[in-house]
Every structure is written in C-alpha cells, then in structure tokens.
Amino acid sequence: PLLTPQPGWAEQDPEAVWQALCEVVREIAGQGGGRVAALSIGAQAGSIIPADATGRPVHPMITFLDTRAAGIVEAWTRNGWSEFIRQITGWGLQIGQPLASIAWLREHRPEVFASAQRFIGPHDDLVRRLTGVLISNPSCGAQMPLIDRLSGQWSAAVAERVGLSPDRLPPLG
C-alpha cells in the first residue's frame, strides 16, 4: 500500500513490498510443482530507501510519486545546479527523484539522514533480501540520478552536493 502521512508525501513500507514478493513467489511455486528455478525483478526505479550499513531499511521508502522536495528541485533549477546534474548524469531534475528526496531528508529530517548509512533503491533491497548481497545495477542507479554517464560509476561530484559520499550508496555490479 501507498502511505501518505502528509499531503504530497508518498511512501511505502519496504517490509510490505518484500512480503508481497514472497507471496507471489509462493503462489507461483505452488502452481508449478514447488520449485522456482529463476527470478527476474522489475522494481520501481526512482524511489529511495534510507538503510543501515547492511542495507536494512531505517525509514520508509520515499517513492517517485513523492513531492515533498519540490522546493529543493525548484531552487536547484533556479541556481543552475540542474544543468550541472544533467551534464554529469544525463538526467534532468524532476520532483520525486531520489537525489532530491535525499537532500530533503538532510535538510528536514537530519536524524534520518544521519542514521542512514546507505541509500538504496527498492530493487537493491529485494536483491539483498533474496541473496544476502547489497548491490545495485547502473540502470537502476542512474535514475537516482547519481551515476556519471561517462564512467558508469557513482558520481562523487553529484553525491557531495547532497552531503553524501559514494560509499553511502550500494556497490554497483
């Protein structure tokens, strides 16, 4: 379910997303004789989960539908920072992107920002829960937008603008 604790906020409980995946896998396994040979994950990109160092969520996922960081995106657009981000990442700024949500947390919920050792996407969380490995892929990570389009790695220059270092993002694989 989508949680809306305040107007413009759109969050989800990562545990509820995990339980929904488990339910679907159990249903499919029950229909096909009990064994799942492979699993492909298509998860919403553009959402962010503040997590501890191992990837366990410490706050609800802020989804791409969330508009709480609209003022931050507007300020970045006015001061030219959106063009800086576009040149590095290839992405224009949009309300609801993880980069703006992270900046909002730093400014308005510093205790959440400080307690989050990692900022991960929903796909990263599901892969971690399935495999025990915290990892992201460049395609999903690019939509944060924090990936340098030329190197294919996390952009330290963009991350630093919101008070992050790349080690607070999941390893890329």
Characterise the protein shown here.
This protein is mainly α. Helix content is 43%, strand content 6%. The protein is built from eight helices and four strands. The chain has helices spanning 14-31, 70-78, 81-89, 98-108, 110-115, 122-131, 138-142, 156-161, and strands spanning 11-12, 49-51, 61-62, 118-120. The strands form two sheets. The chain has a two-stranded antiparallel sheet with strand order 1-3.
H/E element sequence: EHEEHHHHEHHH
Radius of gyration: 16 Å
Strand content: 5-15%
Low-pLDDT ranges: none
Distance between the termini: 30 Å
Shape: globular
H/I helix tally: 8
The helix-and-strand class reads mainly alpha
Strand line-up of the largest beta sheet: 1-3
Count every beta strand, where a strand is a DSSP E run of 2 or more residues: 4
Give a quick account of the main beta sheet: strands, pairing sense, barrel closure: 2 strands, antiparallel
- Percent of residues in helices: 40-55%
Task: Estimate the mean pLDDT confidence.
Answer: 93
